[in-house]
Amino acid sequence: MRACIRSTGSYLPARVVTNAELSKTVETSDEWIVQRTGIKQRHIAAEGELTSHMATAAARAALENGKLTPADIDAIVVATTTPDDTFPAVAVKVQAALGMTHGFAFDVQAVCSGFVYALTVANGMITSGQVRRVLVIGAEKMSSILDWNDRITCVLFGDGAGAAILEATEEEGRGILTTHLHSDGRHRDLLYTNGGVASTGKAGTIQMQGREVFKHAVEALAQVVDEALAATGYKPSDISLLVPHQANLRIIEGTAKKLDMPMDKVVVTLDRHGNTSAASIPLALHDAVSNGRVKRGYLLLLEAMGGGFTWGSLLVRW
User: Fold this and answer.
1) Which domain holds residue 41?
2) pLDDT of residue 302
3) Is residue 286 annotated as part of the catalytic site, yes or no?
4) Which of 21, 45, 113, 212 could hold 310 in an S-S bridge, CB 3.0 to 4.6 Å?
C-alpha cells in the first residue's frame, strides 16, 4: 500500500504587489530584488482574508480537480506558521467550512518545510491503514508577520495556499517512494519571529540573517536530495521534475546544478509568488500540474528548508 497524489488545488489572493510598488515605501528597487532573489511580485491577502479562508479555497479546488466531495476525505492536515488563532487549528476551521463532521484535522508547524512534513505524516497514516484519503494543505499569510519597513524581509514573502489529496493505492510503482525529514534547533536565531504566545503575547515579525540561512540551505538541501536518491537507487537523470521550496532563485539553481538538471525540469513560481513558506511547494506543484508539466509515471522530487532549522525531501511517482 502506498499513498499517491490524486489531485491538487491552489488559491492566491487577488492583490498583486510588484517590486516597483514596494520601492515606493522602502529603500529598494526592482533590479535589486530580482538580482538577489528572483522575485518580481507577490500576492498579498486582503484585510480580513485569513489563512483558513485561503486554505479552504485551495482545498475546494483540490476536491473539484479530484472529482471528490468532503465526504470522501478521512483527515485534513494543514501546514502553516501563520494560523488565524492560537487555537483552534486552521485544519479544523477548514473541516467546518467544508461541512465535514467526520474524521479528524490538525496543523503541522515546520515553517517552509511544513508541506513536506505534512505529506510525510499523511503518508504514514495511509500506509499504516489508518485512513484512505487525506487532504494536505500548505497555507500562509506571511504578510501578517512582516515588518514592512524592513527592506530585507518585506520583499521576500507572499500569501497563498496550495493543497493535495493523498489516497491509498495498490498500483505498483505509483505513489510516495521515500521521505526524509531533519531539524536542528541550534540555528533558531538565524531565522525566527521576535514574538510568540508564551513570550511577548504578540506574533512578532520575521528576523533573518540572510547569508547564514543561504549557506545552511545549500548544504541541507544537497543532503536531503542525496538521501532520497540513495534510498531508492535512482540517479539524478531519473528525476522528471524538481519541485523545490520557492525561497531564492540562486538556491534553486544551485540544487539543479548539483543534480546536473536543466532548469526546464525545475518548477519555478518564485518570480510570481515570492516565498509563501509552507504554501510554496503545493502552489508550485499545482502550477506544474495545471500547465500539463506533470504526466503519469513522472518522478517528482520535492525539497524544502525552513526556520528552525527544518528541512526535508520527498520522492513521488505520479
Assistant:
1) 2-169
2) 98
3) no
4) 113
